[in-house]
Specification:
The protein is α+β, with helices and mostly antiparallel strands and about 750 residues long. It has 14 helices and 41 strands. A hairpin with an 8-residue loop joins strand 14 and strand 15. The longest helix has 19 residues.
Length: about 750
């Protein structure tokens, strides 16, 4: 498993400091109150079962015993400090050894539980190095006697014959205060995959090409409404020939200048460069930085708000691009003026670079100066670039000589950006999603060197994944995809595993991806998988595309995710497909857990250039307020409820805007919050790639970025989803229980999270 290991680990002395700091913090608990100490497990939340009477006493039951952490409050406070940019422990992840030494259940308590279980007739089947869970098995007769409960055989729809406790199970006095709760007194399936599908018609297979990946970019500023209107009136390009609209240099080998006639050595503006603006003439000058010619923009008229620009069209912007040019500026206005604009066809608007040059007072020229801006914000988009001078609104235009314009792609062949059609054989393609949300893969941050894991009850053969990726021209390497079976052979679920793996593998093509397969979605298997991840594997992102109704199980999964957060791991889960308050007036687990990012689904609509248009909240998307988990501190800034609110964020996943999934030899239209959760997983692993760090409990950063940036015209951190309903809740401005804080403009999110 390739996992980035940051240098900022807490040493032995640092751990003591962390303990002292934790003791001083007054963190709002992120975990719910566990079951009463005399209760081992509540009743299953099973509405699709038929009771068949007492189970045979010799039937084998497999249980998972979840032990109490030591210094639980200090662990919560440590995780909070790790997510606080102002804390000296910010992103100082601890090691497993440090967790075991300070927070794990005590070795003597762990041994005591094992001895007690063996004395009662249990067989210990699995233990973990972190001492968090003990798996044990026993005949039902032993289990009923030990927990003072009654277990019945039931027939469950879609899952066959199973068993469940029909009376709350009591915790033996010998385990009280040591064991937090027990899973496995019922093996009915209480959480379900959150995907839906219908078969697509036979596809016409094709392979789409791609560009190259690209590096760090600071996006330019969108212009204000007044400037936008003025630019549209004066600068919208009027190309004279089709040749001027096609830049044949796009796609040249690495190291080529993508700008045609970069030094204006053609001696005219009748080629790739166009005279734009028109307030003052743009003409060829013999005063050059290098070579024989430059361009002279502006001539000193009295138009204070005019534009004198030269422009060139690019059919698709290079990937890891930086644009540089030389300018000899002359101006009488001591204020700043902008020397570069971009019109982005995909986004349908103008942008100006934040690079602005202050001028000297008076007529003194500034001399030749080199300007450089990062173009990665426009990667893959058709654009016009404009260089020249503008009136400042105070004094008149003056003039500038422009020369030696260059755009180079610095990707160096590090992967490919996603390209092609935004739609596949059965709904959105990976390119359609990546382009609309402006994901990191479109800018060179594809998850390379970082890891993600999928926990699910089925497997995805390499051949199926390769067929899916081939359809969309996406290149991965076989060693970046692994299969790990936990608790036995994988179950038979087909569609959900394919959806999860195909979404993450295509949207973050460089990520080291592992599918952790379990026999079914019973609680014991899910807990074992989660605990295996934090105890052995530690992928940076863990996706769970399932949801169900069980408060005490949510407490158990939250415990493990909190441990993972201390290591730098991030857990995400579907918010559920039962609509608002989908669990008899409550919300679904594990997404209700405060250490899981709860991801809702929307209908995503794009424009003609695969850019973001708008979204509508999906009617089936889960959300609400938990009566069991208190409101976390990162939601107290803007909400006044008493419980944890879901969802946190949203991405595409409705039945109106399905995605293409390949499974079982055919293509499927697929939807549900099982689509949106792996999209978030890919987004976050690309953030990790860009930052070359782990994220841990990302909630404070996510909500902090949202509070800081809000929606800012949709170009920066987030998109506000203001329409749609999931039943009891309606989407509106700001946070809501349908779409959370909305969806992310993912590439910019990586700079502010």
């Amino acid at each position: 498993m390739m996992t980035y290991a940051p240098a900022g680990r807490i040493g032995a002395a640092g751990l003591l400091t962390a303990g002292l700091l934790c003791a001083a913090l007054s963190a709002t608990p992120a975990s719910a109150m566990p079951l009463p100490s005399n209760l081992a497990a509540g009743l299953p939340n099973a509405r699709d079962v038929r009771d068949l009477g007492r189970v045979a006493p010799t039937t084998r039951a497999n249980l998972a015993f979840v032990l109490e952490y030591r210094q639980q409050a200090k662990l919560e406070a440590l995780v909070r400090a790790q997510s606080d940019r102002h804390s000296p422990l910010y992103h100082r992840w601890i090691t497993r050894q440090q967790f075991i030494a300070t927070f794990a259940p005590a070795a003597q308590d762990h041994a005591k539980v094992i001895a007690t279980l063996r004395a009662a007739g249990f067989t210990i089947t699995k233990t973990f190095a972190n001492r968090t869970i003990i798996d044990a098995a026993a005949p039902v007769a032993v289990v009923e006697r030990f927990f003072n409960t009654t277990i019945h055989t039931v027939a469950q729809s879609h899952y066959g014959i199973r068993y469940m406790n029909v009376r709350a199970a009591l915790m033996p006095a010998s385990l009280q205060g040591v064991v937090r709760s027990v899973a496995g007194l019922s093996n009915v399936i209480e959480v379900h995959a959150t995907s839906h599908a219908r078969v697509a018609p036979p596809p016409l297979l094709r392979r789409d090409g791609g560009g190259t990946a690209r590096p760090h970019a600071i996006p330019p500023q969108p212009v204000d409404a007044r400037t936008e209107a003025h630019l549209r009136a004066h600068l919208l390009p009027r190309p004279k020939t089709r040749a001027q609209r096609v830049n044949p240099n796009y796609g040249f080998p690495f190291g080529s200048n993508y700008v045609q006639d970069p030094g204006f050595e053609s001696g005219s503006l009748s080629g790739p460069w166009v005279d734009c603006g028109g307030t003052d003439p743009v003409s060829i000058s013999t005063y050059a930085h290098t070579g024989s010619y430059s361009v002279l923009a502006g001539a000193g008229s009295q138009e204070v708000n005019g534009y004198s620009m030269v422009c060139q069209y690019f059919s698709a912007t290079p990937n890891l691009a930086e644009m540089t040019w030389w300018a000899y500026l002359v101006n009488s206005d001591p204020a700043k003026f902008t020397v570069a604009y971009v019109y982005d066809y995909t986004r349908g608007k103008f942008y100006q670079f934040p690079y602005q040059q202050s001028t000297k007072t008076g007529q003194a020229p500034l001399g030749w100066q080199n300007f450089a801006v990062d173009m990665s914000f426009f990667a893959g988009h058709p654009i016009w670039i404009y260089l020249g001078v503008t009136g400042t609104g105070a004094n008149a235009l003056r003039y500038a000589f422009l020369d030696d314009v260059s755009i180079y792609d610095y990707a160096g062949g590090r992967g490919k950006a996603l390209t092609g059609s935004p739609y596949g054989p059965a709904g959105f393609s990976p390119y359609g999603l990546a382009s609309a949300y402006d994901m990191g893969v479109q800018h060179g941050w594809d998850g390379t060197g970082h890891s993600a894991g999928v926990v699910i009850d089925g497997d995805v053969p390499d051949a199926d994944l390769n067929t899916y990726l081939s359809q969309f021209g996406i290149t991965r390497y076989s060693w970046l995809y692994h299969h790990v079976n936990i608790d036995g052979p994988p179950g038979g679920d087909q569609l959900e595993p394919h959806l999860d793996v195909e979404m993450i593998a295509s949207l973050a093509p460089g990520v080291d991806l592992t599918i952790y397969t379990i026999p079914d979605l019973s609680f014991t298997h899910i807990l074992d998988a989660y605990n295996y991840l934090v105890s052995n594997a530690s992928p940076e992102l863990v996706n769970s595309s399932f949801a169900g109704c069980s408060d005490w199980f949510g407490d158990q999964t939250n415990q493990i995710a909190m441990q993972g957060a201390a290591y730098g791991m991030t857990f995400s889960a579907s918010s559920g497909d039962g609509g608002g308050n989908g669990c008899n007036g409550e919300i679904e687990v594990p997404s209700s857990d405060p250490y899981f990012v709860s991801v809702a689904a929307t209908s995503l609509y794009i424009n003609g250039h695969a850019g973001y248009s708008h979204e509508v909240g999906w009617s089936g998307s889960g959300g609400g307020v938990s009566p069991h988990f208190p409101e976390p501190y990162w939601q107290q800034w803007f909400l006044s409820s008493t419980g944890r609110n879901t969802p946190d964020i949203a991405f595409n996943g409705s039945d109106k805007t399905p995605v293409s999934v390949y499974s079982g030899g055919q293509w499927w239209y697929t939807w549900g919050t099982s689509v949106s959760s792996p999209i978030f997983c890919a987004v976050q692993v690309e953030v990790n790639h860009r930052e070359e760090d782990l994220a841990g409990d990302v909630h404070p950063a996510l909500y902090g970025a949202w509070i800081t940036q809000y929606y800012y015209n949709g170009d920066w951190g987030f998109h506000d989803v203001t329409s749609g309903s999931n039943g009891p809740f309606t989407a509106g401005p700001g946070y809501d229980n349908v779409t959370g804080i909305g969806s992310a403009n993912a590439f910019y999110l990586s700079r502010i999270e």
